[in-house]
Structure to design on (182 residues):
């Protein structure tokens, strides 16, 4: 399990570096995320019975995001996200690992002390799902949600993940995260 997760995160990093090198649109919506890296922690609630029965009804969620210097679309941000949902920290009770490329759209281009920026995001990729350590399945996944910046570096977001069924498990999870941008 650890080797697969490490390989998936390394693949995201390589894709992020490649996207930063290719042409695209400069974006000035990122005000303080100078390193391009964000981390987040939260909870996940599966809304598919096979996942909640196989892993658990309430999951701990961890995530990392990487935002390259260039965006694929104007006036928005392209970023790569890898989130993992686990019941226990060893992963022996199963896990869900969605890895996606996303686009974030802000309601405002500026962050002020009177008003925090809100955003919506959508993405697509794949999920690696393991039910109780019984072998992994890889499924197509889409992701979407809304969020808000609570300060220059702190954010809060609601996300929903939907995926294909393979091996009697759908990676359908609702997540609530708090995060920090470096």
């Amino acid at each position: 399990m650890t080797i697969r997760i490490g390989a998936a995160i390394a693949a995201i990093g390589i894709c992020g570096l490649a996207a930063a090198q290719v042409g695209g649109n400069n974006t000035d919506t990122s005000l303080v995320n100078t390193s391009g890296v964000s981390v987040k922690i939260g909870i996940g609630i599966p809304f598919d019975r096979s996942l909640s029965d196989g892993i658990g009804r309430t999951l701990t969620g961890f995530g990392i995001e990487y935002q390259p210097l260039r965006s694929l679309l104007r006036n928005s941000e392209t970023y790569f996200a890898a989130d993992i949902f686990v019941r226990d920290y060893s992963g022996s009770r199963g896990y869900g690992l969605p890895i996606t490329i996303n686009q974030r759209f802000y309601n405002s281009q500026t962050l002020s002390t009177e008003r925090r920026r809100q955003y919506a995001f959508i993405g697509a990729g794949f999920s690696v799902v393991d039910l109780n350590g019984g072998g992994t399945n890889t499924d197509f996944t889409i992701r979407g949600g809304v969020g808000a910046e609570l300060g220059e570096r702190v954010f809060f977001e609601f996300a929903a993940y939907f995926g294909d069924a393979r091996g009697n498990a759908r990676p359908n999870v609702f997540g609530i995260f708090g995060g920090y941008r470096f």
About this structure: Helices lie at 2-21, 49-54. The chain has a mean pLDDT of 80. The first helix runs from residue 2 to 21. The chain is about 15% helix and 50% strand.
